Every structure is written in structure tokens, then in C-alpha cells.
Amino acid sequence: MKTRCLLLLAGIFLFLFSGCGKDKPLPDGYKKIIGNNDGAVVDTILVQTEGIEKFYSKLISTAPSTELMLGNYGPYRSGMFLTFNNLPDTVIVKSARLLLSIANNIAPVDSSFWNISHAAELNIFLADTSWDVNNPPVPDMSLLLGKTFLYSDSTNKIQLALDSLTVDQWADSGSGIRHYGIWLETVDAPFMQIYSSINLANTELAPKLQLIYTTSDSIGAKPDTTEYYATQDASFLLNNEMELNLNPDLFYIGKGLAFRSWLNFDLGGLDTNAHINRAILELTANRSNSIRDFAGINECIIYRLTEEWQDGNVSENQTGASYSPTVMDSVLTFEITPSFQAWLGDKYPNYGFLAKSLNEQKTIGRIAFYSSKHTFELQPKIYLYYTLPPKQEF
To answer: How is 165-214 classified by DSSP, letter by letter?
Structure first.
């Protein structure tokens, strides 16, 4: 009996021991591979080779924009182009006016600037060429339609008087004056005035040309008034990158005068067997070299480049993955895990990222970023969360 009890106790002990063995934790390496600890710690922070960033600029037509910009915003200078079609051909124009709806007045100054009214001299010309963002019209005094002033405290709609005789000749198809359009340009304006364009849903705010004219028939001359909506409109920046006095130790994205920047991180020191759990790119913006109070910072977008960067000669239509940021004050973070996994897995070559602004044609803007030349806290970096496979012993 005593022997049987001892055997029973031994069996219970073995059963309990084997059951506890099944609950033993799996090896650390295996747990990490299946993701139990994914992203628990920062394993590596990647920074770029100092000075590797590059950027280039490109003038952009704002024809798709709802805004028309005229005047100066610091070193940014903008002219405006308007086209009107189907003007009356066999009439005598008595009066002509441009009707514009003011959307905003802007200047890179503090709020006290707006306490008094500021004036900007405006010249209005018949354009000597069709519109081209890289070849804007040249002001020709022989084609002057009018001179007037814009005022910084103007709101709602304004009317700009035009020379009726010149407009009459312009409208006459047999006069020899080419019908390219109307070009507006300010002289030393301390502010920029923004108008509603034809792309707004409310067409009543679009630019219009108002003509008062007379027509003749068998009864005699009859007066008439007609408003013609602009058929095309756009703003054109008249300055280039060199006139902006940019800090070469920063890189940029922009609108109107678009900036596209290149970022690249060397992955050569990473273990290709690593399992990438997360990869987060962090960029820090520089407020003092940006304009319009960081407006548009959340519209920064990066593209995984599908071709080598060749001094800014990069395809306009990127086909690689794109990433939008999470913005906290002046810090942007991009979840770039899929691209990083593909790079490390040798699915795609690492050509780096192209950073640019969405809606480059909508308005003017510029965001500056700290580059690899700055301190570790400010320079671009990738926070890399990864795990390695367990060591194999045979």
C-alpha cells in the first residue's frame, strides 16, 4: 500500500512538472520575430552624411489657383495675367473698367503695418505675348491701358479704369493689335493684394471686364453695357531663387516658386536580416527662414524616388510611394516603414526621398528645414525600430 502511494505521488509530481514546462516563455529572439516586442525601443537612429541634401527651384503657373496675386511679399514679386474673349468688334467703346474681388492683403510684417493705409502704384498693359510662366510680358508703355493705385485697406470689389480708346482698338480685330490679354504689374509695392480667380465656385467674384459702348443700326446709335468674364487668369512670380537670399545650410519646399529637395540616408551599415518593425523620418522646420507663418507646413509630402537624382532633373510625376506628415509645432514625422522595408529587402534601389509641397500652384509659400549641417537634435533623422533573428547553433 505504501509503495502504491509513493508511485502515485511521483506520477502527480511528473505531471505537474511537465505542465509547467509547456508554459515556459519562448526564446527572446523568437518572440521579437513574431512581433511581441515590435517598436518597444529605438534600436538605431540614422542621420545623413553632412551636406548631402540638395534642392532646386522652379517657377510655377498659378492658373489652377483660386487666388490671383499682385504686388510684393518681401522679395516675392507677382504680376497678373487676364484673358477676355469674344469682345464686341463693331462698336465704339466709351468706357472700360476691370472689376476685381479682393480676397486678402498680405505682407511679411507685424500687425501694426495694417493700422494705416499703404498705396501701391499699378500699371495695366495690353500683353505683348501669350502667357508663359518662364516668359512673362514685358511692360510696353505703348500698350499702357491705365495707371492707378492699390490700397492695403481696400476690401471687397475694386474698379480699375482703362483707356477706352486703346481698348476699342484692341477689340477691333482689324486694328493690328494682337489679342494676347491684359498684364498687371505694380511698382515697389509694400504689400501683395490677392483677388478671387475664375476657379472659385462663386463666379460672381471672378475678374470681369466692363465695357460701355455704342452700336449703330438703321435707327441710330444705341448705348449698351456688358460685362465679360475672364476666360483665363493666373499670377506669375517675377523673381528667381537667387533674389530670395536663401540660407544654403537649409533645404526648402515651396509654392509659386516651387522648391523640391532631396534626402538620402546610407543603409550600408544595417543587417539585411533585420526585421524592420517601424521606420519614422523626422524633419524639423526653421521658422525664421520660412514665410507666411508656416502656412502649408502640413502639405509637405515626400516621395520614394524611382530614379536617381540628377541635379534636380527629376520626373514631375513620381510613381513611388508617398507619405504625408504628422505635424507637432515645427516637427514633421513621416511613417516610412514600407519603403524602408523594401530598401533593406533589396526590392527597390535606395534613391532617397523627394520632398515637395502639395498644391504648388495654389499660392506662394516657403517652408525651410534644418539640414544635416545642424545639431543632432535638429537635423533630419530616421528612428529605426527593428529586431534580429535568433542566433542559430548547430
So the answer is: HHHHHHH-TTS------EEEEEES-SSEEEEE-TTSS-GGGS-EEEEEEE
pTM across the whole model = 0.82
Low-confidence ranges of the chain (pLDDT < 70): 1-42, 174-176, 217-218, 220, 312-313, 315-319, 390-394
Burial class (CB in 10 A: 0-12, 13-18, 19+), 264: middle
Name the phi and psi angles at 219, rounded to 5: -85, -35
- Measuring CA to CA, how many Å separate 115 from each of 152, 153, 293, 303, 317? 10, 9, 20, 43, 45
Return the residue matching grid coordinates 523594401. 342
Cα angle, residue 389 at apex, residues 387 and 393 outer, rounded to 5°: 150
Largest separation between any pair of C-alpha atoms in the chain: 139
Residue for grid cell 483660386: 66
* C-alpha angle 27-341-386 in degrees, rounded to nearest 5: 35
- What pLDDT is stored for residue 39 in this prediction? 41
- 28 residue type, one letter: D
Inter-CA distances, 44 with 248, 278, 382, Å: 28, 11, 8
* The dihedral sign for the CA sequence 314, 81, 77, 111: negative
- Which residue from 302, 299, 305, 294 is spatially nearest to 382, judged by alpha carbons? 302
For the record, the C-alpha cell of 290 comes out as 520660412
CA distance 152 to 179: 31
Residue where the block lists cell 532617397? 352
Q: Which residues contact 25 (CB under 8 A, 6 or more apart)?
A: 31
Sheet holding 353-357, edge to edge: 54-59, 257-263, 353-357, 300-304, 322-323
CA geometry: angle 36, 328, 321, nearest 5 deg: 65
Dig out the grid coordinates for 309 from the structure.
537624382
Residue in 278, 279, 271, 276 with CA at minimum distance from that of residue 387: 276
Separation CA 391–CA 231 (nearest Å): 70
Q: How many CA atoms lie within 13 A of 178 on its CB side?
A: 6
Predicted confidence (pLDDT) per residue in 289-316, tens digit: 999 988 899 999 999 999 888 776 676 6
The pLDDT of residue 221: 74
* Centroid of chain to Cα 336: 20
- For residue 7, the one-letter residue type is L
User: Which residues lie across from 31 on neighbouring strands?
Assistant: none
